[in-house]
Every structure is written in C-alpha cells, then in structure tokens.
Amino acid sequence: MTTPLRRSPRKAAVIDNNLKVYPDPAPSSWEPPTKKRRAAKEKNESNNDSSSRGPTHDECRFVVESLGQLHPNVLDDCQNRRSDSLGSSCGMKASIADGLVSTILSQNTTNANSTRAFQQLKKVLPTWEDVVALPDPPTKLEDAIRCGGLAKIKSKRIYTIFQTLINERQSTSLEYLRELSNDQIKKELGRFPGLGPKTISCVLLFTMMRAEFPVDTHVHRIAKDILKWIRPGDSREEAYEHLNAVVPDGCKLELHCLLIAHGRQCHRCAARGKPQFPPKDGTKLECPLVDLNKTRANLKKQQQYTVDYSKASAKPELVVSVKPEKILSTNEEDKGGTS
C-alpha cells in the first residue's frame, strides 16, 4: 500500500523572532487584453477622428458599381422598387400596415419563413380589424404566424400596435405616416415595443421609399470588418446613426440591398466564412471589396462621376458612369514595373 502524498506546509518568511509574514504576490493592475477591451480602446482613440470613418460618396459609388456587376439581379430589383412595382420580399407591401407587419415577421428569421408567416396570417385573419377583435392573448394570431418563429413575441407586438391605433385613432390604418417626416415617423413608431431602428428604417426604405439606410447583421459585419466604414466597437445602432448620415440618399437602396446579397453569397464577407447561399458550382466569388483600402487613393483622384449626391432625391435613376476596373487600375510601380 502506497503512502499518500502530503502537501508540504507553506513556508513563512521570518522577519524577526516575534513577527511572521507570509509573502503575497505583488498586486498588479495589468489585465490581459480581450477583444472587447481592444475594441473599446480603438473606439475611444478614433472617437474624435472623423477622417477614419467612411464612407465617401465615391467609395459608395465604387461599392455599388462593383457589387452590381456581381449581383445584377439585385440592381434590377431595386429599379423595380423605384418604379413603384410591388415585390414579394420584406416590406414591399401595398399599405404601411402590411409592410410593418411583414417587417416584424422578418425579425430573427429567414425571408422564406417570414413570407410564409405573412401569407398564413392573411389567410386566417384577412384584415387588421380581425386582429383587433381577438381576445388577449391573441392565440389565433400566434398560431397563424408560428412558422415564422418567435410567434408569441411577434403576435403580442402586432396585437399591441393595432389595439393602440384603434384606441387612439379609431382605425387600423398607418397611412397618416406618409404626411410625416422621417424623424417624426421614427418617433411615432419607436414608441411601440419591438420596433427598433432597423425595423423602422426598413419600413421607411422598402414600404415608403424614403431615403434610409438600415443596418442588419450583414451590413454591419461588412462595414466593420471589410470596408472599415465604422469603428471596431460600434454597435448596430451606432453604425446605423453614422452610415445613415453619410451614405448618399441616391444610392442607399442599392447599397443596402447589394451588401446583404453579397454577405449571403461571398465566403470572404460571410459570417465565419460560411455564406448562406454560396455559388451552386462550388466556386468562391471574387470579392472586390477586400481591395477597397488599396484603391482609396485612386478614388480620391477620380473626377468622372456625373451624379451630384448632395442634391439626389429619394428616387433617382441609378447611373453607372465609371467601371470598377478603371478605378482598380494602378500605376506602373504598383504593378511591379521597373523605372
């Protein structure tokens, strides 16, 4: 039988015959750097440096033109939206109420699921007056949208909105919002639970065709990690406040839709390098955004743009005047030429 090991007693540092002091490690204020701590430090350092935050108008133009060549169907869809033709995707509905509910159903789920949920909702409860007539809690509404996920939460939000409208305006219509400014609409819709900046911005852009730039997970990730348009520690709300203020009104729709489409298909820009809808042939898209930092100097020199973004309306025609390959061209030294 083996003798169990015994831990040796802790040795004491003898100071004198009457006092014994055990040595303690010296206190240290150093803490290992973490991702959040580094991001907060970078954010504080760049807080007052507006030059480090993009994008410029020319950079927006470059991204729209470059991604437009990769995803021409997205530009076609945007042109259809601008011509007031109704689509089937998130928010593109005949009324603001329909668009708002459709956008709520799209929260934290896929387009396919939210579309199915909206169709099932309209089948079970054809009018919003039918929703108001339901008892609280609205289990029939919850069951109708269950296929879209988070049915209990979303049904309560939808029910609360229309109950409030009936109590305040004796109507379920939201068409009165068309007479208000963007800021007034944000204040009006922002009082309802579950309607954050992204949801309201999507309603403004897709349903009301206002100049807005919603920031979802794809837009936030690409703007932060690839394009470097926002600070590393910026939240989605902070990114929205910044980008919505600096992205030209004339290309907000195209830029938003293209970044989402690209984020779903490009291995370089997708979360964890796993796109939702990669090319069916197994190839990887050649991402034009990764070289944007190298082309910023060239973009500043370009004077060939014909659109005055400062005067662009909410519904301008998309005019592509400069090919991305022209912007990407470098001088002989960059190409490795010898002098």
* Helicity range: 40-55%
Rg from Cα: 27 Å
Number of strands: 2
CATH superfamily of the domain at 53-84 and 213-304: Helix-hairpin-Helix base-excision DNA repair enzymes (C-terminal)
Strand order of the largest sheet: 1-2
Class derived from helix and strand content: mainly alpha
Spans with pLDDT under 50 lasting ≥5 residues?
85-89, 303-339
- Quickly name the level 1 CATH class of the domain at 53-84 and 213-304: Mainly Alpha
CATH architecture of the domain at 53-84 and 213-304: Orthogonal Bundle
Number of helices: 15
Strand content: under 5%
Largest sheet: 2 strands, antiparallel
- Examine the coordinates and then state which fold CATH places here, giving the name of the CATH topology of the domain at 53-84 and 213-304: Endonuclease Iii, domain 2
Average pLDDT figure: 80
Tell me, briefly, the overall form: globular
3D structure, described in words:
With 339 residues, this protein is mainly alpha-helical. The protein is built from 15 helices and two strands. Among the domains are: 53-84 and 213-304, Orthogonal Bundle (Endonuclease Iii, domain 2), CATH 1.10.1670.10; 96-207, Hypothetical protein, domain 2 (Endonuclease III, domain 1, Orthogonal Bundle). Residues 1-57 are annotated as: Disordered. One of its GO terms (molecular function) is hydrolase activity. Residues 105-265 form the HhH-GPD domain. It holds the Pfam family HhH-GPD.
